[in-house]
Each structure stands twice: as C-alpha cells, then as structure tokens.
Design goal:
- The protein is built from 3 helices and 28 strands.
- Strands 1, 2, 3, 5, 6, 8, 9, 11, 15, 17, 19, 21, 23 and 27 form a 14-stranded parallel beta sheet that branches.
- The protein has 453 residues and is mainly β.
C-alpha cells in the first residue's frame, strides 16, 4: 500500500513539472464514417432556407448517411435561418467559407442542434468548413443583446451526440444570451440522460460575446477534445454544471469527465477557462496552453455551490434533499497559462472590488451592452474560490496549475483571489453592490441593433 502511494505522488510530480500534457490521438475522440451519397445546395429556389437544409439532412439520413455541401455563389451566400435545424445521424455537413448563416429576426433561436429532440442518440456527424484554413460564419449582429428573455442565440446545441466534430467557423455575436456552442442533456428515460460523448470542437472564434457566456458552455460531456478556441468577450471555455443538478440526482453519469483542451484564448472578456461544479462531482479535465489578454482573470475555478432558493441547502449551508457540494477531480491539470494585464476587461458587478484602489478610475460607471458587466482592468491571475477551504464536502478542491505566468500586472494586483472577503477595502472610490440585471434589475429596451464602434 505504501509503494502504491509513492508511485501516485511520483506520477503527479512528473505531470505537474512537465511543460505539456500528452493528449490522446484525435482518433480517440472522433472516428467518422462518411458514405458516398451526397447532396449539394447552391442556388435555393425558396426563401425558407431552414426547411431546405433540413430536407437535405433528412434525405441523407434516410439513405444511411453521406455528405451535405452548402455552397456559396455570387448571387447567394447568406442563408437565412428561421427555425432550428436538426442534424441527424451519419450526416456530415461541409460549408463554404463564404457562407453566412443569419437569423431572420432578433428573437431567441438555435441555428443547429444535435440530439436535443427525441429519445435516441445522434452519432457520426460533423459540421465543418470546406477549407480548414477559412471559416464560415454565423452572424448574430442583428440579434437582441443583454438579458432580455426574448433574446438568446446558439450556433450549435449539443445533447445526446456521439462521435461528432464541430470545426472551422466564426461567430459575430452581439452580447447575446447563451454561449455559441452549448452542451446539455437529452432525456432518455425517467432515470437516464444522454449528453455529448466522443467528439472534437476546434478552430472556433467568437467576437463581442456576453460576459456570462462565450464560445462553449458545457454542462455534461465525456471524452471531448476542445482545441484552438478564441473568444473576444465572455468565458471562452466554460465547464459549468449548474443546470444539470436535478438530473444528477437520478443519473450519476451526468457530469464533465475526461475533457481535454488546448490553445484556449480570451481577450477583453471574463476568462479563458471557467470551472464551476455547482452540485456535481465531476471527473478529470486536462488543459494545455491558455492565454488571457485584458480579461477579468485568466482562470475561474469556482467552489461547489448549493442554492437555498432551489432548496439545495438550508439556512446554515447544509446540503438537503439529496444534493451535495460539487467538485472537479483532484487529478485535473491546467498547464502553461499566460495572463496579460489590460484595461478592457469585462468585470462582474462584485469583481469590481478586486480592482486595487489606484486603478478604480479605470472602471466604467455604466454597464456594458451585455447589461451585466463593467469595462475595467484585469484583476488577477486566478479567481480561485475552490481553494478557499480544504473540505471537499463543502465544495473545495485543487486544480494543478503548473507554469502560470502573469505579464504586465501592477504590483498591487493579487495573483489569486480565494474569496470575496479578500477584496480591496478602504478605497476612495467604492463600488456599491447593484441589483443584477439577470435577477430583476431594470432592463433597457433593445431592438437588437449592433453596437456602434
């Protein structure tokens, strides 16, 4: 037994001092089978492009699978999407880099979904550009910004997806609700749920993202590789399991586990990586090469969280009704992280108090267009509330972060914040806690117009 413990310690020592985490081969995540049957769309004879694309997907699916090519021509490169398009098993979609998908109204919409409806798993699918070096585009610039309940836009929503690839596209956002790619659940039975397994998400760029969202938001997934994700605004890769708490009571497989990520970049946003387990005991995540430039922080590693409102804890903070404080597995690693100080970060209401006194004049007085954040300077390397204690039963845990570098930060800034109680006090400029725009603050009307530069 003593020998086993020694080997484990040695293994962790080797990993944590390494410059790179060795990832499995891509074939460990995605193994496509693409049949020869194909359909091409170039010059639509109908203005209902959603129906046209859905009919092509259904036709390929009924033939047992194949390839759908969505082309661009001089007379047609914008495909207007008015309703959710369901990608079905064995359908591989190749999109011309000149194609632009755009909604026909500013109201809430999923453009594409995989395994979100019905009770069967959707497998062996892809949505990628025809040219690996040239992305196609989702254009959200006409959509409702901020927290309006009628707004919200998702490029691709994943549920019960298996053996999938999403790659080589960009999203022109407008501070809309929801991340561009969402990964959630599909109910299979009363006690079982399907979620994303065995896939690759790579070469995605999102601009002008809402603070509370970003490129990818994952509630549950297994054996997924994220690579080359870039976000301007928001959190680039958010592994946050708050929405699946009730499902987890019935199905303990509902969690984030064996997730790998490499080359994750944030600028003028919230953070490059967010881990937030809420009520779920998650598995392992391995992340390499992270950079945050002028973001609120580089990494957010949140403690487990129980909500009194949702009847998950009592007044004393004790877990009730079967819920527990969530964590991520202690073998998880986020290596080679570079956080560069800047003055155009998105700051959460309460995080403004992490700004040192002599930098508080850099914080905007009014909220940004997302109706949640304030423009201001970077505050720290890590917001690390998971390290605010030692008891995993209270949601505390440690993520290994070898080779963490902070560049250009004034000496007053802290490398790590483990609690709100360590905010800067006794400053001449004080920030009052304002009502959240999400939880009932007065919202401004927004017609979905693009913000002027």
């Amino acid at each position: 037994m003593k020998q086993k413990i020694t080997l484990v310690i040695l293994f962790f020592s080797i990993i944590c001092n390494a410059q790179k985490i060795e990832f499995p081969k891509e074939s460990s995540f995605y193994n496509p089978v693409i049949k020869t049957f194909s359909v091409e769309i170039s010059e639509p004879k109908t203005s209902n492009h959603s129906e046209l694309i859905q009919d092509a997907i259904d036709k390929i699916n009924k033939k047992g699978g194949g390839l759908l090519k969505i082309n661009a021509t001089k007379n047609n490169f914008v495909y207007t999407i008015s309703q959710e398009i369901q990608i079905k098993s064995n359908v591989h979609i190749k999109v011309s880099p000149l194609v632009v998908f755009k909604g026909d109204s500013p109201k809430v919409l999923k453009f594409f979904s995989v395994g979100k409806q019905g009770k069967g798993e959707i497998g062996n699918i892809s949505l990628t550009s025809m040219n690996d070096d040239k992305p196609f585009t989702f254009d959200f610039t006409n959509r409702i910004a901020g927290e309006d309940k009628n707004g919200g836009t998702i490029a691709v929503a994943l549920g019960g997806a298996n053996n999938f690839k999403l790659a080589n596209f960009k999203v022109l956002d407008n501070n809309t609700r929801f991340s561009s790619i969402t990964m959630n659940l599909q109910k299979f039975s009363n006690n079982k749920y399907l979620f994303a397994k065995n896939g690759v998400i790579e070469n995605i760029e999102v601009t002008n993202a809402h603070y509370g969202y970003g490129v990818v938001q994952c509630q549950a997934s297994y054996n997924v590789l994220y690579r080359n994700l870039k976000g301007s605004g928001g959190a680039t890769l958010r592994l946050e399991t708050g929405a699946v708490h009730n499902a987890y009571l019935k199905d303990k497989n509902v969690k984030v586990d064996e997730n790998y990520a490499e080359n994750i970049y944030c600028e003028n946003g919230q953070a490059a990586i967010t881990l937030s387990p809420h009520t779920i005991v998650n598995g392992k995540v391995f992340i390499n090469d992270v950079e945050a430039v002028s973001c609120e922080t580089g990494l957010i590693i949140a403690a487990g969280f129980l909500s009194k409102k949702k009847e998950q804890r009592d007044k004393q903070g004790n877990a009730i009704n079967g819920h527990i404080y969530g964590t991520f597995n202690a073998e998880s690693i986020i290596s080679n992280v570079k956080i560069v100080y800047g003055k155009n970060a998105q700051l959460r209401n309460t995080r403004r108090n992490f700004v040192p006194c002599d930098q508080r004049n850099l914080v905007s007085k009014d909220r940004n267009e997302d109706e949640e954040s304030f423009k201001g300077p970077s505050v720290s390397g890590i917001v690390y509330f998971a390290k605010g204690g030692t008891d995993p039963n209270k949601g505390f845990y440690t993520i290994h972060t070898p080779n963490l570098k902070m560049v250009g930060f004034p000496k007053e800034n802290k490398e790590i914040f483990t609690s709100n109680k360590f905010s800067f006090k006794d400053c001449d400029i004080k920030f009052k806690k304002e009502p959240s725009k999400i939880t009932g603050g007065k919202k401004k009307k927004n017609k979905g117009k693009k913000k002027k530069n």
